[in-house]
Specification:
endopeptidase fold (from Nostoc punctiforme), signal, single chain, two-stranded antiparallel sheet, about 170 residues, six-stranded antiparallel β-sheet, alpha+beta
């Protein structure tokens, strides 16, 4: 007969492990294998990951546009110009008005994910496929996070498609 304390301990450990794996804010950029991508999406993802390799870990700095510090909208603007040669406005407010709004289940690599992180603050990142996006985090700098992380899922606002080739 198994003791109740052992069962409860096992349940707590399993719950903690599930919680920690679901809340990972910086998954491996190599874990994109679930959803098939078009040839264009594959090339875009490669371009964004190459860009990410140069910017990974650069600290967040409001108004920043350089390797010394960058904010989310500058990262998106520079990434779009570098990776796919598309110009974007500088601010999150203006970026949230370009292109067309897309349903969550239609997101493709390169789409812009927007979040309302407070009553007056907006955040933006670039979708990389399989529920991952690149952005400039205020706490960790330039990272790749999961859109299904409970925090990001709770503050999700909209998705916009800027690239007409998608």
């Amino acid at each position: 007969m198994i003791k109740t304390d052992v069962i409860i301990g096992f349940f707590k450990a399993a719950l903690l492990a599930a919680f920690l794996s679901a809340c990972s804010s910086s998954p491996s950029p190599n874990s994109y294998a679930n959803k098939p991508l078009s040839e264009y999406e594959q090339s875009q993802r490669t371009a964004y990951l190459h860009f990410y390799g140069k910017w990974q870990g650069v600290p967040y700095r409001l108004g920043g546009t350089s390797y010394r510090g960058i904010d989310c909208s500058a990262l998106v603007q520079i990434a779009y110009q570098d990776a796919v040669n598309l110009p974007l406005p500088r601010t999150t407010a203006l970026q949230s008005k370009v292109g067309v709004e897309i349903d969550y289940d239609e997101a493709r690599v390169g789409d812009l994910f927007f979040f309302k992180t407070s009553r007056t603050t907006r955040h933006v990142g670039i979708y990389l496929g399989n529920k991952q996006f690149m952005h400039a985090s205020t706490s960790k700098g330039v990272v790749i996070s999961r859109i299904d992380n409970p925090y990001w899922a709770d503050v999700f606002w909209q998705i916009r498609r800027v690239d007409p080739r998608l």
